[in-house]
Amino acid sequence: MRHQIIYTLLLITIPFRTYSQEKVTLSGIINMKTSTETIIGASIFIPGAKASTITNSYGFYSVTLPKGEYTVVISCVGFETIEEHIALTANTRKNFSMLEKSKNLNEVVVKYNGSASNIQKPEMSVNKLSISTIKKMPAVMGEVDILRGILQLPGVSNAQEGATGFNVRGGSVDGNLILLDEAVVYNTSHLFGFLSVFNADVIKDLKLYKGGIPANFGGRTSSVLDIYQKEGNNKTYHVTGGIGAISSRLSAEGPIVKDKSSFVVAGRTSYAHLFMKLADNPNSISFYDLNAKLNFKLNDNNRIFLSGYFGKDKMDFNNFFSNNYGNSFFNLRWNHIFSDKFFSNASVIYSKYDYGLKIKYVGIDWVSDIRNYNFKYDFSHHLSDKLVLNYGINSIYYQFNPGTIKPMDSTSAINPDQIEKKYAWENALYISAEQLTDKISLTYGLRYSYFLRLGEQHVNNYANNQAVLFNPELQIYEEGKPTSITYYNKNKKIIDFGNLEPRLAVSFALNDDQSIKASYNRMSQYIHLISNTASVSPLDIWAPSDQYLKPEILDQVALGYFRNFRNGKYSLETEAFYKKIENKADYIDGAELIAQKAIEQVLLNGEARAYGLEVMLKKNTGRLTGWLSYTLSKAEQRTPGRNAEEPGINNGKWYRANYDKTHNLSLTAAYQLTKKWSFGGIFTYQTGKAATYPIGKYQYQGITIANYGVRNANSLPAYHHLDLSATYTPKPDSKKRWKGEWVFSIYNVYGRNNAASLMFEQNKETGLSEAKRISIFGIIPGVTYNFKF
């Protein structure tokens, strides 16, 4: 505690020397001129004072300068640069409105930050994709997809063909904290990962943190994907939409009270299942989702936002079984400007993910869900032109329902059952500082997280506190038997955990075009995805940490070199990273996870590590833009025996994680041929994911049984495909309100049958064992008509 107090006092007292100078503060909001939509990450630069800052997640900026006259330069990707002369004699509130760049052949369409900003900022392992960039990528079935853009970044890969979610730097899917308007999204996919739940028509900004994660984020060990929805146009009404081969979308925005309040609402739905029915196809798959947001400007210092999302996927296979899953959330936010230097945001959030399964021939109806109630209050204090202090609190209450089991009808032999619900409470305090000098930029902070498991629940007790037993005769792990059961009343503490999580990122500018950056962060993860697959599936279950399922603790370091060439026309980013995770859950062979009432009986705690090198070369301007990203990495885990007699998993040796991809290459390009025609292409190559193959077989009572080798010693075939798209805009210079374009796309142009898995079976004619590749997607053409008015 004494060190924490000293640390805090140092942060607060550093800027006091500057207060003796005659200084004033320039602050305000930066928004779009046509809609007053606030702009995130706009750069404010004052050349005469060599001072700069950027707008926060709500468009607010603040910079402190000596009294005097200055030229203020404001820039942001996709907008016209503003230069304005200002005389500062007192604290000044000044809002700026930026005009979007008109479309031309030399438009900047791929750029993450300004050429100086990406060199000087201490941010590293961070990628920001503009919506204009994503919309230039090839569209699957004509549908622009945000997660496909994320997958083209270094250090990011998908688990496999048809899998949902993504892996970052050798981390598991549940290690990604995915936020939409600050609300947690637990499953990001529609149609088995073919599309994401994020409708690009209503997305305003997104940023992916792979390392150097700021102290205001916590609860995961791999990455943070922070996405914000549009706030709505408070000046005029607009409608945007698209009609595609398997789905369509429509969004509308406009003022409720002009210049005071606005709304945006968007919906998508698929209808491929209707065509299946017409063709007498017994299978059916469909989805729909709805986004909405309200924005109220009470006065210059107060704004209220209400946003929400609801989505659902439904699948029915041959009238054999059906599956459905979906996300929903609501968020009420309050932005308040206390002063020219002091900004706050308070949020109250409800989030839910539910998933269910009906097996018709058995007559079982199984439903599970996870819900959380979240309160967060964040403050940003611009103490001086060189120091910004951020601090806040976060409190999340969880409710886990592992499974409600019901009979489908009166003829079913299934007995109703409710697997005990679980409850937990996660709290956090954080403080961080952003400090600038001429050559060195720093971001450093500390987060304290506290996790509390709560009743009401029956908790199993085991001999020697071991829920998994080792059978020395068979040399296998087996489920333990409880010796007693303890009941905890509602809100009674079962167990608690607390962790300090320091964060540090530093940038040293060699010159205006080159910098070296380094970062370190520790993070704790208290909730876990109970899954022995490489990706999220609709039936995976989330569970809280307890005395058996320990919290994961991550330590990650990274070192990078950044350079701009030819005035920012080209840029190079290289990073090396190393991360290790304590208490990585591992499952015993043959573990059954579905409807598991005592998950502790099939898991052991081990460790994980990942390390690698990432390279990204970008061309930012001109007709041809894009980037080449390459990642060389290794992801491993190890679960040693608990004593000298136990072998652990794979004899306690390091083995490949399910999501290990040694090589990951992506080439993304966009070409503006004319004002009417533009083209996009993506080529992706990844090492095949880890797999376990049988090494022999034996007969037992007339049944052939496969004998498998050590875990993940093999690999699926390499994963690669090429996607192309062409966009045709019939009247690009039309002054009419109605604007339309046609998008033609081909997914997997050369028809690569990428393996989702391999199935081993005996050939009925030859009697020999053989492996069959199971592929999900072949060549998929698509066409969509997009419109806006």
TrEMBL record:
Keyword list, A-Z: Cell outer membrane, Membrane, Receptor, Signal, Transmembrane, Transmembrane beta strand, Transport
Outer membrane protein beta-barrel domain: residues covered: 369-690
SUPFAM superfamilies for this protein: Carboxypeptidase regulatory domain-like, Porins
GO function term, MF aspect, one: siderophore uptake transmembrane transporter activity
Topology in the lipid bilayer: Multi-pass membrane protein
One Pfam family from the record: CarbopepD_reg_2
Localization, UniProt: Cell outer membrane
Transmembrane segments: none
GO cellular component assignments: cell outer membrane
Gene Ontology process terms (BP): siderophore transmembrane transport
Similarity comment: family membership: Belongs to the TonB-dependent receptor family.
PANTHER family hit by this protein: HEMOGLOBIN AND HEMOGLOBIN-HAPTOGLOBIN-BINDING PROTEIN 1-RELATED (PTHR30069:SF29), TONB-DEPENDENT OUTER MEMBRANE RECEPTOR (PTHR30069)
Record protein name field: TonB-dependent receptor
Organism, scientific name: Chitinophaga eiseniae
